[in-house]
Structure formats: structure tokens, C-alpha cells
Amino acid sequence: MDRPLDRRRVLTALGAAAVLGAAPLRLRAAFAQETDPVSPAAAIAEAAGAFLDALSADGRSRARYAFDDPERVRWHWTTPGRVPRNGLPLAEMSAAQRDLALALLRASLSEAGYAQNLAITQLQAELGQDPTLYYATVFGEPGGADPWGWRFEGHHLSRHFTVVGDQVAAAPFFHGAWPTETADGRRAMDREEAAARELVRSLTGATRDAAVFQVESLNTHVTQNEPEVAPLDPVGVRVGDLDGDQQALVEEIVLAYLDSLPEALANPARERALGGDLDGIRFGWAGGFDPGQRHYYRLQGRTFLLEFDNSLNQATHIHSVWRDFEQDFGRHLVEGA
Hints:
Blueprint: H1 7-20, H2 25-31, H3 40-53, H4 57-63, E1 64-65, E2 88-89, H5 95-108, H6 111-122, E3 135-139, E4 148-154, E5 157-164, E6 167-169, E7 173-177, H7 190-202, H8 205-211, E8 212-214, E9 237-238, H9 244-258, H10 263-274, E10 282-287, E11 295-300, E12 304-312, E13 317-324, H11 331-334
Parallel strand pairs: 1-3, 8-10
Antiparallel strand pairs: 2-3, 3-4, 4-5, 5-6, 5-7, 7-13, 9-10, 10-11, 11-12, 12-13
């Protein structure tokens, strides 16, 4: 029987995960029981102010944009060499400034999410690329009365946060990983892939026929980097038609993404995605069922879309994106501000 997890052992494991890869789901769930008494909006604003205060005038001019600048909804997941980024990269910060930029990222995420995001950046070394080419960009005035936000972005990672008063929107976001597993066994996105495979392989007969909407993988995610998306055509099996164990795997997939957020943000995000009628959520699969085979899956509900693609480089290259049809880039907050 597993020993109970205490806070010290959870934090130790999560600290190791920052170097070795993403924390196991069990550790993420254990840490999620801790609730920070400081609101996410206040913590993010304080960290953003400290980061900006540490920059030179030139650094601030590069790192800051007006909140209503079109740059705020311009985003991508590919390398900065292919799609140049705006903002200030970690590579051009002093050690102290870099620490403050990462403290801002940490304030915006759960400990498990922060560890996983660092693991994604560290995979760049496996590709012979620079793991410090990740850009911090602030939009508007942190902590002020007007809406503001910030972005952390580079290859295979794009995190967006919009803050209005004490409310925070944390969508869209993109997580990718290449390689999916390193030679020494590190994985940044383990359960995001494995739980979905377990789910589709557990399906049989007409239920599997309904879930698999295409024999071949899609090769990419459909929504790409659009600033606003609408629901895709409904494909796949209704989650309400699955048995309890299969529905638990759907929940695990969703939590693998949303538990990257602080608990105060993750709880309403989970309720928004999963709290309604399960018949409103569909799971669709395209491609092979075995490890090493190219595949794509999609979870789509009334409010959200999760796309996951592992088709490139002999199925060793993950692209995944979480979209909220109403709340991407905080539209629901900004329009009511």
C-alpha cells in the first residue's frame, strides 16, 4: 500500500520533477489539496511588478505592450527561429532578472504545472536548441484597475494570463514535447498521452467505432494558432456513454492539463469543463492504438476543446492545445470590465 503523501515529500518530488520531467498525476493531485491564501491575481501582479522593476529601460520597452495591442493575441508554438517572438527572452536577462521572470511563471501556475513547463523548456537541449529562448511579455499595467495580462512563450510552450480585478483567465495554452521520452527516461507529457491510449484501447465494438473517427492520424491540431475558435464538428463517442472507469480516464486527461493551474483557478476550470452533462463531451481518436504509432485525439465539450497530436517524427513529437470558446484571452472578463 502506498504511504500517505505529506507536503514535504510532495514538494521534494515536485522539485525533482523540475529537472527530471513532469510530476506524476498522483503528486499533482496531492499538491492540489494545498490552497494558497494569496489570490492568484494578487500573486501574479506582485510577481509581474517585481520582474518589470528589475529591467532596464530598454528591457522594459521590449517586455511591455499596451493591453489592447494586437500582439496580445498573436501566439505560436514553433521555434522562435521560424516565428520570431516579441518580448524579452530569458537568454537576454541577467541571472536575477531570469529568476524574477520564472518567479512570475511560478506564481501563475501550480507547482506541478511549473515543473512540467520547465521540463518542456529543458527538452530544447535534446534538440540542440537554446532552452533560454522563452519570452516574457507583459500587456498593460500589472495590478492596476484596468485589464492587464502577460505571456510566456517559446518552442512547444505558450501560456497566457489575463487579469481583471481579482479574476484571472488562463486560456488558451499550448504544451508540446519533443522527444516524448529522452534516452534517460524523462517524459514531460506522460499521462496526457498514456491515459488517452488506455481509454481508446479499453473501448470495444460499437463504442470504439464511434470514438475512432479516422483511421489515419490528422498530422496536426486543427485550430492552429487562431486567436478565437469555435467548436469543431462533433466527432467521437459521447463521454456519457462510457463506463465509470472510462469516464475516470477522461477526467484524468482533463486534470493533466488543468491541474497545471493554481488550485483557485483549477477548481472552477475543472467544474466548467466537467461539471455539466457528460453527454455534452465527446472523445474522438484518429490513428494507431499502440505506442510508437502516429495518433491524434480530441476532447470537446460545450465550453472547451482539447486537441492532442503525436504524428511527427515517428510519433515522438507532441503538440497539444487547450481552448475555451468564451474565455480565451479573457474575453469574458475584458468585455465586462
